[in-house]
Amino acid sequence: MSSTLSPPSEPLTQVLHISYYDFLIPIRYHSGHTINSAEAQALNQLLLENVRNNISKWIKRLNHPLSLEAHEALQSRVYAYAETYQFSGRPSRRPVSAIDAAMGEIAAAQAEREGNEAGYAPDSPQVLLRYRQLLHDPAVRTEARKIVSERARMALTTLPDILGDSEGVP
Asked: N or C end: fewer C-beta atoms under 10 angstroms in the chain?
């Protein structure tokens, strides 16, 4: 038996977990695949849903109602975003420490806030670059440590109430 991997002779498959069971599903779509009208309709629907989900964050942060000028300016940003939107694969997930997760939350919020003030879309390259810079900022790490410490303190003080007793809780 050979220990080297060879190209698959069968179509590519992916495991799909459905109600306790794993199933092999053929991967039908790939780069260069020609789509039919139903597939195009499904992709356009997915595009609209992704744009709506991503843009809704912007809308929630605005003062309402919008003036006509503000709506027109937002329309041009939304149009540009949708026009340049690209589907991407989901990144593999790796375990993240509580501090790293808090740093990500802080950096994302601050980068998006700064980008919004400068007129950039939340998913723009400028905001992404600022987010990556903030992930290495010592002040962001310090703030994240404070947040994690406070969350841990809150968990320890409320856990006995949730459990109904204080035995076994440090």
From this structure: N
